[in-house]
Amino acid sequence: MVMLTKKMLRDIHRNKVQFMAIFLMMFVGCFLFSGITGEWRGLEEHFQTYIDEQNMADMWTYGDLTGRDIDKIRNDVRINEAEGRMVLPMVPAGNKESTLQCYMAQSSHISKLYVKKGIAYDSSKKGIWLDALYARENSYKVGGQIELDYKDMEIKGEILGLVYSPEYIYGASEGEMMPEHKNTGFAWISPKLLPAGVPLHYNEAAVITAGVQRKQIIQDILGEKEVKTIVRAEHPAISMVKDEIKQHQTIGTAFSAAFLLIAVMIVMTTMHRMLKNEKMQIGILKALGFTKKKLILHYLSHNAFICLTGALGGFICGYRFLPGLIYKFMRQMYVIPVWGGYLPPVYYLLPLGCTVFCVLISFFICRRYLKPNAADILYTDMPFAGGKQFPGTMELLGFAGRWNLRDIARNRLRSFMSLCGVLGCTALLFCAFALYDTFVNLSDWTFTKQQNYECKITDLPEEKGQKELLAMTDGEYLMESSASILTGGTSGEGADRERGKKGEKEVALTVSESTRYLKLAENLDTFTAVDGGVALSKKTADSLGIRKGGFLTWKPAGGTSYICSEVKAIVRTPLSQGIIMQRSDYEAAGQVYKPTAVIGKEPANGFGTYEEQCSISHQRELVEGVDSMMDGMVMMIMLLVLGAVILGSVMLYNLGILSYMERYREFATMKVLGFADKKIRKIMIQQNVWLSALGILLGMPAGYGLLYYLLSTIPESMDVPVFIRTASWLLSAAGTLALSFVVSRVVSRKIPRINMVEALKQM
User: Fold this and answer.
1) What is the DSSP secondary structure assignment for residue 106, as one 8-state letter?
2) How many domains does the chain have?
3) Does 450 reside within a domain?
4) CATH code at 568?
């Protein structure tokens, strides 16, 4: 046993490059799996705990509500709990760039506030509970004063608490991608601070249902009252986080599986090569009385030791370091009180499972080599005449080409793995560069080509003020609302009768006056116009199975009857998915146009008094939000590039060394016959160039597929058109080819050190 242990250590040292490759691939695969899985599992665990503990609402209803309406909702058997709120967008005095969504309610038992500092919300106390992140960015403290304005109403009070809200886990404003905590946030205000004569008038209700969450429940309870309802799954605080979790889950699984698969392939080639080269030793050991069982255990111990070490090390390091690194960027997007990785106990079996799988594969290989008796094992294998398979091709090639083609045919597994290494390296590099191009282009395309207005004004004043805003911005009206699309294929007459049999899909509804500031893009370069119908965003069209020229049955929020419209165009809308149409077509359908915003150019002399009366978002701020989102994307790109370099370097160097060792005697023979070292190097590099070129050609479409796979995991509310520069195609190919050439040069430097006498004695 001691002798076999020493032999195992000597074998590992002699084949250190191959075993190091196994170690690294196992380490990286388990590092990525435990790190990314621990990250999304931790996010899922703490997110679910947070919304459960804070009693997150099941649905929200918006409209002109009375106390009697709230009681009707609360007393329905399908409802467990309901709370009415008055929500107003207020502006802090002295900071006209900021907007706070201010809530006034008698209680906060639904979607309870999480108190960071101060006391819990109590409507009987005169005070304000302020968004903790907004307070941090603007230097507000507990016990300080804050003054808020809404049109002609002023509210001033003491800050009694700094809080988080489960409804603001994702707090980006409408039309933005990244939350801007310095200028946006929320506050809960005791109704006792309302000025005298101003009643608590509800315009929102938070509801906990007794069972199934269906929007129609509230409409059924309130009858004909015009309200809009969204369920928990559609709320950004829920949908964005769940989409993020799904995205990280798919990325972590795919990348980990790729590295672990490559580790398994290296295990196979290493075992084949080691057992083949040690046939003489195996025969002698069997002749000395070592049983087949003992020898199998001996050779399995090589991979068991290396695989377990690499898998366990990667698992521990990944779970220890990667979640914190990813959370650093995610904290900019989401607000959750507790961050931390989490792995269910069953996942701790991963290193053992990877090791067992590799050992099992090694067992079948060992059994094949150790099955014959000692006499049969000691016979030397006859060389495989692979060149006979390509008689026509051989005649067209010179000596180097024939020799390399025959070697590729003889060592199919090694050649296939080299191809996979180059393919993987190219795919990862291409995907990284293409992701960067796509997201850099997204900002420019969205805010200069598709949405080319400079400012957007909401919370509009009276009609006279609106006209002044239109004049000073050279602007036009914009209506943003929501609509319900009847799914299931029903359109035209009878749609209302079939409503009960069909489903509904809630989407955004955008109605503009023209395409001057809000263009309709069929793709990155083609813009269109719609006359007499509607345009449908591509993601919505794909989910419904609708194509251009089809018909859509829909109704606007609060509408009582359905409209059948022809889909005149399928368009790309990065930030809002749903129906887009012109004002003239909307009014022709019998609907009342109610503008919610004015879009246009920035006035040279500012907005004057409207700075205080309205909420104004500037296009440059939206661009900055997208750019800040690139921080997290850059980290992903760096991981892809790093993964490509590790994968390519380890695979190519390992297989280069393997190729060198397998052809050691052939190279020695060539040297004896007078071939110069330079010529032998050229022959060796030529094979790598062939495989690299083929791997790059296959890797480009694989990278393109990987890009689409990653983009398919982004939230449903976003649509990111693919944009790839020519330079990215060239850099991916050139980078992989350069890496392959460098590795080939490093390996070929061993040619001059071939010991011809020692090599030929082994023949």
Assistant:
1) S
2) 4
3) no
4) 2.40.70
In a domain, 452, yes or no: no
- Specify whether 106 is located in the same domain as 174: yes
Residues 127 and 169 in one domain: yes
Q: How many CA atoms lie within 13 A of 679 on its CB side?
A: 12
> How crowded is residue 291: how many other Cβ atoms within 10 Å of its Cβ?
11
Q: 762 Cβ partners below 8 Å, 6+ apart?
A: 665
Are residues 571 and 580 in contact, defined by beta-carbon separation less than 8 angstroms? yes
H/E run at residue 261: helix 236-277
**360-375 tens-digit pLDDT:** 988 888 888 787 777 7
Helical packing angle, 677-711 and 399-410, nearest 10°? 50
pTM of the model: 0.76
Q: Mean pLDDT over all residues of the chain?
A: 83
Cα dihedral value 104, 109, 110, 111, nearest 10: 80
End-to-end CA distance of the chain: 30
Listed residues 328, 356, 381: the one ending a domain: 381
- 103 and 210 belong to one structural domain: yes
pLDDT above 50 for 132: yes
At 134, the amino acid letter reads Y
Q: Using CB atoms within 10 Å of the CB of residue 520, give its burial: 0 to 12 exposed, 13 to 18 middle, 19+ buried.
A: buried
The answer on 70 and 45 residing in a single domain is no
Q: By residue range, what is the domain housing residue 537?
A: 476-600
Confidence of residue 5 (pLDDT cuts 50, 70, 90): confident
Most confident of 82-91, 499-508, 606-615, 631-640: 82-91
Distance between CA 571 and CA 519 in Å, rounded? Answer: 10
Please answer whether residues 203 and 65 qualify as being in contact, where contact means their C-beta atoms are separated by less than 8 angstroms.
yes
Asked whether residue 236 is domain-assigned, the answer is no
Q: Distance between CA atoms of 248 and 242, rounded to whole angstroms?
A: 10
DSSP 455: E
CA distances in angstroms from 245 to 34, 167, 179, 231, listed in the order given: 15, 18, 18, 19
Three-state secondary structure readout of 692-704: HHHHHHHHHHHHH
Q: Do 15 and 123 belong to one domain? A: no
> Is residue 461 included in any domain, yes or no?
no
Calpha distance 754→669 (Å, rounded): 10
Same domain, 551 and 578: yes
Residues 565 and 575: their CA atoms lie apart, in Å, by 23
Give the whole-angstrom CA distance, residue 266 versus residue 420.
11
The tens digit of pLDDT for each residue in 51-62 reads: 999 999 999 999
Question: Helix 292-330 to helix 2-14 angle, to the nearest 10 degrees?
Answer: 50
- Cα gap 33→30, rounded to integer Å: 5
Mean pLDDT score, 177-195 = 87
Domain identity same for 583 and 638: no
- The CA distance from 681 to 161, in Å, is 73
DSSP assignment letter at 451 = B
Residues 277 and 375 reside in one and the same domain? yes
Find the helix packing angle between 726-748 and 619-662, rounded to 10°: 30
